[in-house]
Amino acid sequence: MPSPSPLVIATGAVNRLLKEEASYHKELLAQEAEAKAQEEKIKSGQDDEDGNATYILKQHKMVVEQTRAVFKPLRDRINQAVEKLEDLVASEEKTGNASAEELANAKAALEKAKTEEI
């Protein structure tokens, strides 16, 4: 089996990074919901038996902030991967070495990256 072309590798990288970003967004929503639930628990006076509800809330908020910190570097990596893929697509369109399917997949990944940009 021949090794995948640079176009296929770059397409896979863009798709993987987009999937990773979507996963982090989903994770952030869940973490924010947990922090909000903990805040409500404290406000309603339902402190847990150990008396560490405030500490747990602080930990939840720290996790939320750490997850938010992931987005900027991840978006930078996505942008770099998109630039590389755009260059490869342009190059392959000129040379005609890539199959139509590879080019279609690459263009679909580029379109997806541009529509999901935040």
Short account of what is shown:
The chain has helices spanning 6-43, 53-95, 100-115. With 118 residues, it is mostly helical. It has a single domain, classed as Methane Monooxygenase Hydroxylase, Chain G, domain 1 (Up-down Bundle), CATH 1.20.58.90.
How do the strands and helices of this protein lay out in sequence?
Blueprint: H1 6-43, H2 53-95, H3 100-115
Helix pairs in contact: 1-2, 1-3, 2-3
How would you describe the overall organization of this protein?
By secondary structure, the chain is mainly alpha-helical. It has one domain (6-115): Methane Monooxygenase Hydroxylase, Chain G, domain 1 (Up-down Bundle). 82% of the residues lie in helices and 0% in strands. It contains 3 helices and no strands. Helix 1 (6-43) packs antiparallel against helix 2, helix 1 (6-43) packs parallel to helix 3 (100-115) and helix 2 runs antiparallel to helix 3. The mean pLDDT is 90.
| Secondary structure: number of strands | 0
- H/I helix tally: 3
Q: What is the radius of gyration?
A: 21 Å
Order of helices and strands: HHH
Q: What's the rounded overall pLDDT mean?
A: 90
Mind telling me the CATH class? Mainly Alpha
Globally, the shape reads: rod-shaped
Stated plainly, the CATH topology is called Methane Monooxygenase Hydroxylase, Chain G, domain 1
- The rounded distance between the terminal residues' Cα atoms is 38 Å
The CATH architecture would be Up-down Bundle
Low-confidence stretches: none
- What kind of sheet is the major sheet? none
- Overall number of domains: 1
